[in-house]
Amino acid sequence: MTAPDLPPSLWAATAPPPPESRPLAGPARADVAVIGGGFTGLSAALHLAEGGADTLLLEAGPIGYGASGRNNGQVIPNLSRLDPDDIAARVTPELGGRDKGEQLVGLIRDSASLVFDLIRRHGIEAEAVQNGWMQPAHRPSRMALVRKRAEQWGRRGAPVRLLDKAEVAALSGSEFWDGGWENRTGGRINPLGFARGLAAAAIGAGARLHTGSPATAITREGPSWRITTPSGEVVASRIILASHAYTPPGLWPGFERSMVPVRSYQMATAPLSDNLRRSILPQGHALSDTQGDLHFFRFDAAGRLVTGGGLILPMGWDNRIRRRIAVRVERVFPQLGPVRFSHAWWGYIAATDDKAPHLYELAPGVLGWSGCNGRGVALATALGREMARASLGMPLREIAAPVESLRRIALHGFAPLGVAWNQALFRWKDGRD
C-alpha cells in the first residue's frame, strides 16, 4: 500500500523534514496503541512515553497528514462558539457537574501555553510566535459578545484585555473592526512543523511511530485489543483513537457519526515587502474575528499573509476560494492592492452539533474524542495529554475533562446539507445585529 501524500500547502513547502518512520511490518505489542499521527495522537504518544508506557503510534499517511498539518496554525486558548460559563454549565451531574466543567475551562485556558511550552522544551522548529491572539468585533453590536468573553475568561485567570477601535486598528493594521479583545497566551505556529517536532520528541522519549500504517480493524482479544493494518498488527492493553475527522467508517462502531467533517480552506500570499509587512499585524498577533463566516489572518516567518475561509459548495473550490478571499483581504487591508495567493489547500475539521468537544470512553481501555470545531491546535494537544494520563492509570474522573459514553449525531447522513445551510446562515447573520 502507498501512503497518501500531503497536500501542496505552505506548511508542506516550509516545515522542517519529519523524523524517519516506516510502516508497521509484522506483529507487535505495546502497553498503549495510538491511532492517528496528528496533534492529539502525537501529544498522547509523547506524554505516554515520558510516563514510562511502551507506546506505539499508527498513522495512515505521513505525520500531520490530516487537519493537524493543514490548518491555519493559530494557537487559540478558547472554544469557537462556547464561552466559559456555557462550558461549565453544560457538564451534567453524572459527568462531574460544574466542578468538572470548570476543570475543562482551565484546560482550555492553559492549552495555548502548553503548546508553546512543548515547543520550547523540545526545541521544536515551528516558527512559533506567542505574541497573542486577538478577536475583533466586526460590528459595533458584537462588542457585547467581546466584553462577555473577556470578562468570563478574565474571571478565570486568563491574561485578557479589552481593546477599543483605535487599539484594534493599531494592532491589526485595519479600520475594518470596531474594537475587540486579546489573550496574550495565544499565537501562531507552522502546524506541520509542530506535528513533526512532536513526532521527533515522542520518538526521542521511546515511542515507536509507524507511518503508512492505516488501522483497518480493532478487535477484542481477551483483556487486550488487536489492531490490524495492511502489513502488520499490534496487540495493546489500551487504545487512544486520535484519528478525529479522518476516522475511516467502521473502524469503531459509530465513532465517525459523533462528528461532522467540515472543509476548511487555507491560502497564503507570496512574502510581502517590508513596508507592507509592517503595516499589518505589526506586533505579530494571530487574528480571527467574531463573524460566523470567519475572517482570520496571521503571518508566517517569511512575511506571507496566511488566511482562509469557507465555501457553501466544494465544486471548483480552488479558483472560487482564491477569488472570494482575495476580495475579502483587499477589503480588510486595502494597502495591499490586488491580492494573489501562492498556495491554497484545504482539510477537514471535526464539528459537533453542540459546538463542544466530547471525550469518550469507547470501551474499557479505549479513549477517543471529537469536536475541535476550529480550535484544534491547542485543544487537541491538551486533550492528548489528558488521554495519556488516563492511559497511564489516572482515574477517568481525575483528568481535566468530562468522560462520557459515545454520543452520535442525529440524522448524521444529512450532515453535508446542514453544513451548507449553516455556512449560508452565518453569512446572512454576519451582516445583521
TrEMBL record:
InterPro entries (alphabetical): FAD-dep_OxRdtase, FAD/NAD-bd_sf
Domain FAD dependent oxidoreductase span(s) in chain numbering: 31-389
Domain of life of the native organism: Bacteria
Region of interest (Disordered), ranges: 1-26
Keyword annotations: Oxidoreductase
GO cellular component assignments: cytoplasm
Gene Ontology molecular functions: oxidoreductase activity
PANTHER family in the cross-refs: FAD DEPENDENT OXIDOREDUCTASE DOMAIN-CONTAINING PROTEIN, SARCOSINE DEHYDROGENASE-RELATED
Entry protein name: FAD dependent oxidoreductase
Organism: Pseudoroseomonas cervicalis ATCC 49957
Classification lineage: Bacteria, Pseudomonadati, Pseudomonadota, Alphaproteobacteria, Acetobacterales
